[in-house]
Amino acid sequence: MKEPVEISKEIVELEWVLRRISAIIRQKGREILSDFPITPPQFVALQWLKEEGDMTIGDLSSKMYLANSTTTDLIDRMEKSGLVKRVRNSSDRRVVQIHLLDKGREIIDEVIRHRQIYLNDIISHFSPEKVKVIHESLNLLFQEMEKDE
Question: Domain containing 49 — which CATH number?
Answer without folding.
Answer: 1.10.10.10
